[in-house]
């Protein structure tokens, strides 16, 4: 009798803690939006900001909106989706722990498509729709009009998905800027469907008037560009005032400043004594991210080969590029900085120099603040009697506002456990990891707990740890990389990327037969993404990527270009 009473009281307690607060959330979808909906991820987003759409307010900071996510498959037309209250959330993990109060709430569906890849795996992933794989802005994704609700535990809620994101408008060609798009045979074969690469091409002054001139190629790597950036043929908009504020840089009038820099670049570009060359910005968004990291990958396919051997030769043939490795230069920052160095390392004969600013981790002993080889857990630094969360983001004073766990849990809520968030740690994992048994990237660590998989870290080391690869293969690579490697980073990089640069510099400075003969430089107290100028603030130099490295490139030409190359205007007559 006593035992039965105890079990009854325990059941009542359990019911009060769980069952009585079970939320019933129904997501209805307008009939006209159901036609191509089959698989996807449903997000439920809460916000205390009643002026902005909740989908645009999810971030790593303490001011983030709340999001929960769940996958669904084989959607049945005419039936609502029932949101699973056990779905994982960020920053609050459990739906029943959301405090009572007034919120603006929105439901959002990121659609998944089915890919039957040449490696034998069938996977379901969100396809880029021309926006650069940004889930909150991707055409064809659908969402509800935000509504205010008085939320309380156990609440029933119905949301109506009645909006669809429209197609992206393609940019138009101008005198100087051309846009190309080609089908990649290599990528199409891997993905089992037509896959494309694009580029925005900035042509030199007098290109049409001089049909016998051929030009070197500057390849700018970075995140997905909607059009060629930082080039403007008209002065700044006179209606722009100085009252707009850049929170990132803490200054007013930044929009006007950006337009002025773009116009100044145009004026330099057309001046008679400016170097003549072609600049390209590549579009290579894919089902995992806004770009591919420009290398061959088990999960993404042969993007390195596709860019180097399909896209770039096509551009050079179309726009009179010289078409040889000595006349191609790589540059970029952050993601683009890693790509510039990686492409130079993996294709040393095809390019004649890289200028890698604030690169993503180039030595995985400092994978941001994690050593994936020695550490057991990515989220915690552990001792015998306590453990401490690892920092993920800081300012120039070292003040931390996000932890590595925060950043990964946000991705877990948005994209689930198959690297589908379209964000930073997931794309690193997609690029660097082997394919798992389920066809998705094998996790470097458990996305929830942070426990590191040492078999995966060993694979990363041999295939994508750029410092390790250079050191391992220096006897073969060294002669091909001599004078080509230039790395720049702020010593207070927000994502601790300078730590991997320090380790890489240690190796480069000890190289022999040959000495690497490049450059590594640091910006004092400079944040992400310092690119090499010690005399100007970062908010200016980041607008001058296209002109910053021209002196170094000219020096490289003097050492390596053919004797008949015309240094005066960087052209060669054929």
From TrEMBL:
Superkingdom per UniProt: Bacteria
Keyword Protein biosynthesis: no
SUPFAM superfamilies reported in the protein's UniProt record: alpha/beta-Hydrolases
Assigned keywords, A-Z: Signal
Signal peptide: 1-19
Gene3D superfamilies linked to this entry: alpha/beta hydrolase
Keyword Signal tagged: yes
Protein name, as recorded: Esterase
